[in-house]
Amino acid sequence: MKIDLTDTTASKINKALVQGRRAIGTPAVGMVLTLVIVTDEENAYDALKAANEASREHPSRTLVVVKRVSRTPRDRTKSRLDAEVRVGADAGTGETVVLRLYGDVVDHAQSVVLPLLLPDAPVVVWWPVDAPLDPANDPLGALAQRRVTDTYAAEEPVRDLTARAGTYTPGDTDLSWTRITPWRSMLAAALDQVVCQVRGVEVEGEEFNPSCELLAMWLADRLDVPVRRSVSAGPGLTAVRMDTDCGPIVLDRADGSLATLSIEGQPDRAVALKRRETAELIAEELRRLDPDDTYASALRYGVERLNAKPARQEPEAGPDPVASEDPVAVPEPVEEAAKAPAKKATRKAPAKKAAAK
Question: Where in the chain are the domains?
Answer without folding.
Answer: 2-175, 181-275
